[in-house]
Write a structure and sequence with these properties.
Helices cover 0% and strands 54% of the residues. It is built from no helices and eleven strands.
Length: 119
């Protein structure tokens, strides 16, 4: 079992920035695909950004250009930097880590961190 812990959420003014962190208990972060997802009020959970174990990166269209996902394998941590925040970015942000072991996919989720964009 891998423990996943997010941090860095909070209240941010429109146009502001924040950096979310996700740290896992497994010291082999390099084996995992790491993703950030969010659930906005009244909507289903959606992908925000993902970085694969071989460092391929993908972003949800509305986040391109103002979002950066990076990983620090030595710290077992993945970061999500979001700039130019908008009220519609208000959501609970979740970290997901996934890997395939013996042909079986393992998925682990954090508890989520609330981001509120409001003046």
């Amino acid at each position: 079992q891998v423990r996943v812990v997010e941090s860095g959420g909070g209240l941010v003014q429109p146009g502001g920035s924040l950096r979310l962190s996700c740290t896992i208990s497994d010291n082999r972060l390099s084996d995992f695909d790491m993703g950030w997802y969010r659930r906005r009020p009244g909507k289903q959970r959606e992908l925000v950004a993902i970085v694969t174990s071989d460092n391929k990166v993908n972003y949800e269209d509305s986040m391109k250009g103002r979002c950066l996902i990076t990983r620090d394998n030595a710290q077992n941590t993945v970061y999500l930097q979001v700039d130019s925040l908008k009220p519609e970015d208000t959501a609970v942000y979740y970290c997901n880590v996934a890997r395939v072991v013996n042909f079986l996919r393992e998925d682990y989720w954090g508890q989520g961190t609330q981001v509120t964009v409001s003046s």
